[in-house]
Amino acid sequence: MPATTALRRTLAVMAVLPLLTLAACGYGSQAKHDDTAKVAAGAKKTDGLDSVRIGYFGNLTHGTALVGNKKGLFQKELGATEAKYAVFNAGPSEIEALNSGSVDIGFIGPSPAVNGYTKSGGKNLRIIGGSASGGVKLVVNPDRVTSLEDVEGKRIATPQLGNTQDVAFLNWAAGQGWKVDAQSGKGDVTVVRSDNKVTPDAFRAGSVDGAWVPEPTASKLVAEGGKVLLDEASLWPDEKFVITNIIVRQEFLEEHPKAVEAVLRASVDTNRWINAHPDEAKTLANEQLEADSGKPLPAEVLDPAWDSIRFTDDPLAATLDAQAEHAVRAGLLEQPDLDGIYDLTLLNKVLKAAGEPAVDDAGLGAK
Fold first, then answer.
1. What is the pTM of this model?
2. Which fold has domain 136-238?
C-alpha cells in the first residue's frame, strides 16, 4: 500500500478549500428528451421509481451521458422509470444538487468529487464508475512560446482556482522547478484563472500566452491559431487519467441498487457503442450538445476534441488518488481521507455479465 494512502487512513477529515468556486450556476437546466427515449410498451418501473434524475455537463468529456441520452440507452435500461436529465456548468452546482436530492446520479470530474466527498465527511456520495479519460492540453501562442522551457515567465490560463486542470498545471510547473504561489497564481509562471467560456477571447486578445484546459476549449484555442505544446495524457502511466466519473447519492445507492445498476448497465453499453462507432457517436454527442445549449460545435473544434478523449468504464482510481496528492502538494487541499469514496460492486457485476474484466478501486473502496 502506498505510504500516502496509509497516511490518509490515519487522518481525520479536515476542512478543505473549495476545488471549484461556488459561484457557479444553480441546479442546472433541464436537458431535452430525444424521441428515441420513449418508454417501451409493457416496460416495468425499476425499483418502483417514477424517475431517476441524472446530471451531467454540456461538455464532450461527458460524452457517455450525451450519447446515452441521445440514443435513449438510459431510458431503455430503466424501463418505465423515467430518465430525467439536468445539465450543469460546473461541479459545485452538481454536487449541491446531489446533496439536496435534486439529482440522484451524476457525471462529474475528479476534483469536485473529492471535494464533495471530503467536505461531507465521506457521507454524501460514492464514485460508482468511470466515464472518460484524457482530453486536456496545454495550448500556447506559437509566436510567444516555442518550447516547454519558454512557458517560464508567461501567463497561462487555467479554468478555476483549485480545479482539476489548475492543480495539474501547478503540479507540472513544480516539476519543472518553477515556484508559483497557488493562491495568487504569481511566480515563475503567472497562472490566470479564467472561465473556459472566456479563455478563447483572452487568448485572442493576447492577455494570456496559453492555457492548460480541457476539451473542447483546447481545440477552440487551436482554431484561434494556438499550438498544442503538451497533451496531459503523456504525463500519466499508459496515457490514462480520469477526467469524468459517475457518482451517486449514498442514500439512493442503498435504497435503489437496481436503478443504479440499470444506469451503470446503460453507461457500459454506451461506452461500448461509442468505441465501436466513434464517428457516429461524435455526431450524436454534438446533436445532444445542440439540444442542451442551442449551439453545436463546429467541425474544426469537434473533430480534434473528440479524438483526444477516451471513453472507459474504469474510473482509474489510482489517478484520482494521485490528483488529490497533487492538490495537497500545491497547498490547495488538506490531506484528505478518501477511504470509501468508491463502490464499484455494481459496476463489476455489470462488467462481469458483459464478459469484461473487473476494475480496481486502488484500495479506496467502501467497506
1. 0.86
2. D-Maltodextrin-Binding Protein; domain 2 (3.40.190)
